[in-house]
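We were asked to recover a plausible sequence for a given structure. The inputs and outputs are reproduced exactly as logged, with field labels preserved.

PROBLEM: sequence recovery
POSITIONS: 131
GIVEN STRUCTURE:
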């Protein structure tokens, strides 16, 4: 699938920098928007829906964030999903390999395509963008 617009939802600015560099180094030409928590990302989605703007094709979502964490984001996203005019693919990208988080991600199988562990590698990114 070809992605044009992506959301990176993570409170770690180092992760933002790493994603930017991985995209550049792998010649992946997309327009990333960066959000430091789930609330900012959900509000960004709502704004785009109201204004009829292009929605992101892909969301890279951390689960451990302040304000509105990844799980809360996914609950909000479920509510918004019916208002979206296209499919938005979500990958969880987390440093947590806790079994409870991995199992919880499976409860969002209609929203979450896959779960990646940090640190992300070029191979991870290529796999995401080749699916």
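RECOVERED SEQUENCE:
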């Amino acid at each position: 699938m070809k992605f044009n617009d992506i959301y990176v939802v993570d409170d770690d600015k180092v992760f933002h920098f790493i994603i930017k560099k991985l995209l550049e180094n792998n010649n992946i030409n997309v327009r990333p928007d960066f959000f430091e928590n789930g609330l900012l990302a959900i509000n960004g989605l709502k704004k785009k829906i109201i204004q009829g703007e292009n929605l992101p094709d892909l969301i890279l979502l951390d689960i451990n964030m302040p304000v509105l964490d990844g799980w809360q984001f996914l609950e909000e996203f479920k509510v918004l999903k019916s208002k979206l005019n296209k499919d938005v693919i979500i990958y969880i990208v987390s440093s947590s390999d806790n079994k409870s988080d991995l199992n919880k991600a499976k409860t969002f199988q209609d929203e979450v395509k896959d779960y990646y562990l940090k640190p992300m590698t070029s191979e991870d990114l290529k796999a995401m963008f080749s699916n």
